[in-house]
Amino acid sequence: MRVRHRDVPRAGGSPHIKLALAAALVTSAAISAFPPVSAASPSIRYGIQDGAYFSAGPALETRLGTLDRLGTKLVRHMLSWREIAPTKPRHPTLPGDPAYRWSTTDRVLGALCAHGTTVLVTFYRAPSWANGGRSSSFVPSDKSALADFAVAVAKRYPWLRLWEVWNEPNLQSFLKPNSPRLYVQRMLNPTYRALHALSSANRVAGGATAPLSTSSGVSPVTFMRGMREAHALLDAYSHHPYPVTPGESPFGFAHGVCRYCKGVLTLANLPALVREVRRDFGPKRIWLTESGWQTNPPDRHGVSPAVQARYVAEAALRARSAPLVDILIHFILRDEPRLNGWQSGLMWASGRVKPSFNSFMLPIAQARRSGRRTRIWGQVRPGTGRRRYVLEHFTRGHWAAVGRPALTDGNGSYERMVNAARGMRYRMAWLPSNTFSLSLVVR
Hints:
Blueprint: H1 20-33, E1 45-49, H2 60-70, E2 74-80, H3 81-84, H4 103-114, E3 118-124, H5 145-156, E4 162-165, H6 180-198, E5 203-209, H7 220-229, E6 236-239, H8 270-281, E7 285-291, H9 305-321, E8 325-331, H10 355-361, E9 364-370, E10 373-379, E11 388-395, E12 398-401, E13 406-407, E14 413-419, E15 425-431, E16 435-436, E17 440-441
């Protein structure tokens, strides 16, 4: 897997945004959408991560309108400890300490809160004062340092309820040494305890593991078992189930390609991730906080835009069908302009939408098939409550309705059983907007 270079907002100036009413609404939505650990999830949430696209700047408000168009109200936000606390604070749990630089984060999180968006915050990049003057990937020397920072963040933004401790700590590109014991003892457990002491509504995820080992990293399975041995405290295990082999789809590896893969955890073998989480941590929730397929063009190792669109919808169904999974985050919204960057966006670098944009907004996928009996799953993400739609199939040169208009469930999802031959095409029309999903070809 190629190392991903994520753009983060540069420091800038803006006054602190007070959004008490919006914060209360977002907090209420977060608590109701993400159940206590022991409960079954009433619905999976789908979100977006793109720190460069949603950076503080004059275009931020317009870009948040893109989220509204997509119908997602969940964003993963990478919070750089190093940028917010470039010097050591005297009172690290107090957000008013003069060492903290909140202006850029205020603008981004404030705008997301005003849009009613639930934010999942991921801590990463340690300041040099916290790890003996080393680079941002080195483990903090003091086990209270990150926890104190987390408390300051939670006090400044009291509507935040979803937290993730670090990013891909099983790889040395993000954590050195990539020791699960040090990760648990100096970062995860102290932060978990501190955030839960502030509010019982806080949910803290640990892991955020990359899907496979690299030359400088360990496999997620090895890291998870090390976390278990270190007595990790967490409400959810988070993971990045990116594809890692040629021809890999959300529902399986290409024939023979991953026969000897060990320690690999992707969407293709999502049941293995569920089993491993249960083995190591019991019935904890699972958050899939990064996933995506790069497109060719421009990445010559990517899939075609049409295949990416199909995989985006199938990934949604795959995650929804798995027990314990509450969250699936797509990385990213707009392609990075440099070719050695990341091209898994729903939009090209120019801002023009790919077919996957529509597929994210109105996913439709084949759930299962027995003979000609085919179950179709889909979702209308924009809007709230039960949405009105009609299922259509292509016959005799035109699209025709399959039965009468119907209503989704309260989360915008629907399932329909149809009698379909292989190769038949279906799509969903979202009424009354008259917006169409991409067509599904029965396989």
